[in-house]
């Protein structure tokens, strides 16, 4: 239980009614989660106006409200008027949980692609060094060895502060988190004090949400600009991919020291002699403090970038080279990222989360480098998401594959056929023959596997670790890896890779 008075010092507000001496037993932004004695923060959302649910919140026992517009409130309920409820939610939540990010080392990883992979690699390095680590991201949230389900890549501010507080309570030394552009734009992390910001790359995605690429970049930039302020004493820094054209902007807006990584000479941490194989990638790390070889069980040229970012963090944290090497070489895979489905068949089947034009291009280029036979790609695009990326993904898929099967990803509220029709113009820029449309994802995967011959590679892209498919408002069980395995077993391949 906390007194409102103690929660509002970072907030500018107008007290519309009631007293700040009111105690609250919890905070929520969703009326359905409100319990007796709670504070309800009404957010004007993209879909509905949270202020509509004030009666619901009051009925469930809310004793205080935060609103963006004056509302009629029963006596005895405290009501604060703020300019921006999302920001207020963040400030109140951070105060409620006693600013947990100040009590641990917080590493934020942002960028279009590679966040999940990079956070897992950083986690492995810190654990190898004996630290207790918390992880927040797309696949899972973890506190030490305990796994908690992840709903968002970056949780809503209240949930985020609660998770960080839990980590502080469990004596976590480092929290490594993916920071999505949605979270940055919607101020979910504005009251987190980061020690380290890591930038992976920027390419087209989410233009349904951000107005244009400039706005998307500006959202990413917030993390790096924030590194310059806060109350923590330790030396903060940014780790930036110097090979990405946007690195100049990010360097310019951050006031903390920058460590760069990349494949080119000018980077602080570089990779040389890259050798990409189906089951892993080898290369030489070159850094100001020396060189060492890495032999990773993850593959793809993009893995080199993700690993270099993690190496740069490890080195800055003073972790010895041998420990960094041992940690990275011990990572056997990240779920749904270039995950091989191997039932003993004579062609490769790969499940990967590539869901952007750039992600897909990197994936297929890597696939090409390691495949003697044909590349058969099964992919679709998510509904209710950036429409602009659809033809671009179609073009990339057709250009870098020998054959494409265009199917459904998560259609959400859209018609699957209509999404596919947005993809096809891109495909047809490259080929009018070497593709097929199979709307049903299961059948699409079945067809790809049926077509595959010795030395071919079937790439099933877009859903990676996801264990569901969202069709209209139904979340149906669907796991590309399980489906592929089931189909392969139907063909009599049965060696157990699980
Ligand atoms: C675009 C976006 O991010 N939207 C988020 C936003 O939703 P919204 O503004 O549409 O909310 P709304 O549905 O209009 O509701 C408004 C308010 O009324 C409340 N409400 C609603 C119903 C009710 O009965 N009572 C009630 O109080 C809601 O809880 C909410 O506070 O605020 C909600 C509450 O925090 C989020 O759940 C929601 O995430 C949606 C579901 C989402 O899909 N977000 C995705 C795009 C996202 O954030 N993705 C990124 C990763 C992207 C990447 O890959 O990089 C992520 O970090 O996960
Ligand atoms: N550094 C990278 N550059 C480009 N593509 C990458 C990179 N790392 C991974 N990818 C590709 O992008 C896909 C998604 O990778 P990952 O899940 O690590 O990214 P993410 O940034 O967490 O994605 P999301 O925003 O959806 O959570 C991978 O499956 C791979 O195909
Ligand atoms: N976090 C990303 C993931 C997309 C994955 C793809 N399977 C889809 O559903 O579009 C997003 O929300 O845009
Ligand atoms: Mg992710």
Automatic annotation (TrEMBL):
Segments passing through the bilayer? none
Q: What class of enzyme is it?
A: ligase
Function, in words: Catalyzes the addition of meso-diaminopimelic acid to the nucleotide precursor UDP-N-acetylmuramoyl-L-alanyl-D-glutamate (UMAG) in the biosynthesis of bacterial cell-wall peptidoglycan.
Q: Which post-translational modifications are recorded for this protein?
A: Carboxylation is probably crucial for Mg(2+) binding and, consequently, for the gamma-phosphate positioning of ATP.
Cofactor(s) of this protein:
Mg(2+)
Q: Which residues form the Mur ligase central domain?
A: 109-313
Which is a Gene Ontology cellular component entry for this protein? Answer: cytoplasm
Protein residues bound to UDP-N-acetyl-alpha-D-muramoyl-L-alanyl-D-glutamate: 31, 153-154, 180, 188
Which residues does the record list as N6-carboxylysine (modified residue)? 220
Name of the protein in its database record = UDP-N-acetylmuramoyl-L-alanyl-D-glutamate--2,6-diaminopimelate ligase
Gene for this chain: murE
């Amino acid at each position: 239980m906390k007194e409102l008075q103690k929660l509002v010092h970072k907030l500018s507000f107008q007290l519309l009614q009631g007293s700040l001496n009111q105690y609250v037993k919890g905070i929520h932004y969703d009326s359905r989660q409100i319990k007796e004695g709670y504070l309800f923060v009404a957010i004007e959302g993209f879909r509905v106006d949270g202020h509509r649910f004030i009666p619901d919140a009051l009925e469930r026992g809310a004793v205080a409200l935060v609103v963006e517009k004056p509302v009629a409130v029963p006596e005895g309920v405290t009501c604060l008027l703020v300019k921006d409820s999302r920001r207020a939610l963040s400030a109140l939540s951070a105060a409620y949980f006693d600013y947990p990010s100040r009590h641990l080392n917080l590493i934020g990883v942002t960028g279009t692609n590679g966040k999940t992979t990079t956070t897992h690699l950083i986690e492995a390095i810190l654990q190898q060094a004996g630290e207790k680590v918390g992880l927040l991201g797309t696949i899972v949230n973890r506190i030490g060895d305990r796994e908690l389900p992840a709903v968002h890549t970056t949780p809503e501010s209240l949930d985020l502060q609660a998770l960080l507080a839990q980590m502080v309570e469990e004596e976590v030394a480092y929290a490594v988190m993916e920071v999505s552009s949605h979270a940055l734009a919607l101020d979910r992390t504005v009251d987190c004090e980061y020690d380290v910001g890591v930038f992976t790359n920027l390419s087209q995605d989410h233009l349904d949400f951000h107005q244009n690429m400039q706005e998307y970049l500006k959202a990413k930039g917030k993390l790096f600009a924030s590194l310059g302020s806060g109350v923590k004493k330790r030396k903060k820094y940014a780790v930036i991919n110097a090979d990405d054209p946007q690195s100049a902007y990010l360097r310019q807006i951050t006031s903390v020291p920058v460590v760069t990584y990349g494949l080119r000479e000018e980077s602080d941490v570089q990779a040389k002699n890259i050798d990409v194989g189906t089951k892993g990638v080898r290369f030489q790390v070159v850094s100001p403090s020396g060189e060492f070889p890495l032999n990773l069980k993850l593959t793809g040229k993009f893995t080199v970038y993700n690993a270099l970012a993690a190496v740069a963090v490890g080195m800055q944290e003073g972790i010895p080279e041998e420990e960094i090497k041992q940690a990275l070489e011990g990572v056997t895979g990240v779920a749904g990222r270039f995950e091989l489905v191997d039932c003993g068949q004579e062609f490769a089947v790969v499940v990967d989360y590539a869901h952007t034009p750039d992600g897909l291009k990197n994936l297929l280029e890597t696939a090409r480098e390691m495949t003697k036979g044909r590349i058969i790609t099964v992919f679709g695009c998510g509904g209710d998401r950036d429409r602009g990326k659809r033809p671009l993904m179609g073009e990339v898929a057709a250009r870098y594959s020998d054959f494409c099967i265009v199917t459904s990803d998560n259609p959400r509220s859209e018609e699957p056929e209509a999404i596919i029709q947005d993809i096809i113009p891109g495909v047809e820029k490259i080929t009018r023959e070497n593709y097929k449309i199979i709307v049903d994802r299961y059948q699409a995967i079945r067809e790809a596997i049926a077509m595959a011959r010795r030395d071919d590679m079937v790439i099933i892209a877009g859903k990676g670790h996801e264990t569901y498919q969202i069709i209209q408002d139904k979340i149906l069980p669907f796991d590309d890896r399980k489906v592929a395995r089931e189909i392969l077993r139907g063909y009599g391949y049965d060696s157990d890779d699980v």
